[in-house]
Design a protein that fits this description.
The protein has about 550 residues and is an alpha/beta fold. The protein contains 23 helices and six strands. The protein has a six-stranded mixed β-sheet with strand order 2-1-3-5-4-6, with helices on both faces. Helix 3 (about 35-55) packs antiparallel against helix 6, helix 17 (about 305-330) runs antiparallel to helix 18 and helix 20 (about 400-415) packs across helix 21 (about 425-435). The chain starts with a helix and ends with a strand.
Length: about 550
């Protein structure tokens, strides 16, 4: 009875819409004129960038974002921890935009919007009009394209790459044209350069090609071989880098393996539960839209376009294969690693429908999605900022800028040259590289608790640790003992939200000036509250 009443309401609304609905209906009517979706994505980027700016106004960037920018400062074909693409993108972005919080937050949201745009390219192969918008609205009702996207790292960079690669692969299957085949190979290679987890997407493409009804025509054409050649060429420099550097990226990846079976099973269940939770709001919304028409799902899918069935194979493979791999290699499996792969589900549930979807539902979904975004930016964001100012973060990210600026001040009391290199706690080191006016280059000796080379220290070097990080502080003492001259400070930094003081935490710095001993007559500690200094050196002990 409820479903019947709701369906009747939808039909009546489409026949005689309320006045407030008419502008939204006019917007939906512009989908096929190619202005409605770009406007939607522009609004998405604007409001969610605003949310990030307000929510983190008293805080600093997430360590993953700082790491991404830091690793991208030098163009390299590889990095010890992650493949290099995320760093390349950050470097390209900051050649146009300033090195600032809002700039990196905008980059994250633009990346998410590019992913949504690529999803729309897929949707328009199978649907027209406001069904295309509904696909994007369902994805916007997940936390993937806002909260997951804001940490621009090796996971979130795939939000744009996986849909782009899938679209190119789909067009390659459909047309077998050389341009689409090459595009499929290059975009798949870029996804691999984003994160090796993308091997599951490549495996999904192989499975989908084999399962496709046109597989004979596809494999008898040049398309798959052009894709392989294009991907191989795109990956060749990175493979060469791996061969010449001992493949440290694989070592980092394998650090996630070797867990006991009980832990792995727990991770697999959490993996599935996390994906279900991420999709829950969108799923309920779709249930309200489809109603009793869900009974037609099996019949609709049976008669669906082969391209949609290809997307189903991609979806299932990119979920099942990581689970099987995790169980085999005993790896952990966070659901965050798979969020970039949920988009085919939204395309499938909407585009396989044989029945028209009333505009009433798409307008309602638009209002719901926009309402959540507005409330997030105007209500949740300020509350989040106040809460974090008072309670802080485990990683200390609302103290990064203060620590970086204080270190820079201390350094220039000792040296007339800019701070060249920074190490210590990774998060603080990334933060110092980003927030210090000197923008020192990140040095990586703290990984595996290695002591920096003497030549590195002779050129000038500093390190930061939080005082309660005992291992880091002990490592710092060992590093300082290797230098002829070093200066150690301990100082307190405090979060600040528009003048309101917040959480406090102690930080330890170690500085090794280049070449000459430090100027001990400088009053570098007198101005710093709660600070202490220790100077080490053969002539001072």
């Amino acid at each position: 009875m409820f479903d019947f009443t709701f369906s009747e309401l939808a039909k009546r609304s489409d026949q005689n819409p309320a006045r407030w609905r008419r502008p939204l209906i006019a917007w939906l009517n512009g989908v096929e004129s190619d202005w409605a979706v770009p406007l939607m994505l522009l609004c998405f980027v604007t409001i969610w960038t605003t949310y990030l700016i307000v929510a983190y106004i008293g805080s600093d960037l997430h360590p993953d974002v700082l790491e991404t920018w830091t690793l991208g400062r030098h163009f390299e074909w590889g990095n010890p921890k992650h493949p290099p693409l995320m760093g390349w993108i950050a470097r390209a972005w900051t050649t146009i935009f300033p090195v600032s919080d809002w700039s990196m937050q905008l980059m994250a949201m633009v990346n998410a919007a590019v992913g949504l745009w690529a999803v729309d390219l897929i949707s328009r192969q199978f649907a027209t009009g406001h069904k295309r918008v509904l696909v994007l609205l369902l994805l916007m009702l997940t936390p993937t394209y806002q909260f997951h996207a804001q940490r621009f790292n090796a996971n979130s960079v795939l939000l744009s790459l996986w849909p782009l690669a899938t679209y190119c692969f789909l067009r390659s299957i459909q047309t077998r044209a050389v341009i689409w085949a090459a595009s499929a190979g290059v975009t798949a290679a870029l996804a691999m350069l984003g994160k090796y987890y993308s091997i599951f997407l490549v495996a999904a493409f192989c499975s989908a090609a084999i399962a496709h009804p046109s597989r004979r025509a596809y494999f008898c054409s040049v398309a798959p071989y052009v894709s392989i050649a294009a991907a191989s060429l795109a990956l060749a420099p990175h493979v060469y880098w791996l061969a010449n550097h001992g493949a440290p990226t694989f070592e980092h990846a394998m650090a996630h393996a070797g867990f006991d079976l009980g832990t792995v099973l727990h991770d697999v269940l959490n993996f599935l539960a996390g994906l279900a939770a991420a999709l829950s709001v969108a799923a309920v919304t779709w249930l309200m839209i489809a109603g009793r028409r869900l009974d037609r799902m099996a019949a609709d899918f049976k008669g669906a376009d082969p391209g949609l069935k290809l997307l189903l194979v991609v979806l299932v493979t990119t979920i099942v294969l990581p689970i099987l791999t995790s169980l085999t290699l005993r790896t952990d499996l966070p659901s965050l690693w798979a969020l970039q792969g949920i988009f085919p589900l939204a395309v499938l549930v909407v585009c396989t429908t044989s029945y028209p979807i009333e505009t009433f539902y798409t307008v309602n979904a638009t209002v719901l999605t926009a309402g959540i975004a507005v409330v997030a930016a105007t209500v949740a964001a300020p509350i989040h900022a106040v809460y974090r100012n008072h309670y802080g973060y485990e990683e200390g990210r609302n103290l990064y800028r203060q620590a970086a600026l204080e270190l820079t001040h201390q350094w220039h009391e000792l040296s007339d040259v800019p701070l060249p290199r920074i190490s210590g706690d990774d998060s603080l080191a990334f933060a110092a590289a980003f927030y210090s006016p000197d923008h020192p280059f990140y040095s990586r000796p703290f990984v595996y608790w290695k002591v920096p080379r003497k030549t590195t220290m002779e050129r000038g070097w500093a390190a930061l640790c939080f005082a309660d990080q005992i291992d880091c502080v002990n490592w710092m003492a060992t590093a300082g003992a290797r230098s002829e001259y070093s200066v150690r400070h301990e100082f307190t930094v405090q979060a600040n939200l528009l003048g309101v003081p917040g959480i406090r935490r102690s930080v330890v710095s170690l500085m090794v000036p280049a070449r000459e001993p430090p100027r001990v007559d400088a009053p570098e500690c007198d101005d710093a509250p709660n600070a202490s200094i220790a100077i080490q050196g053969n002539s001072l002990r």
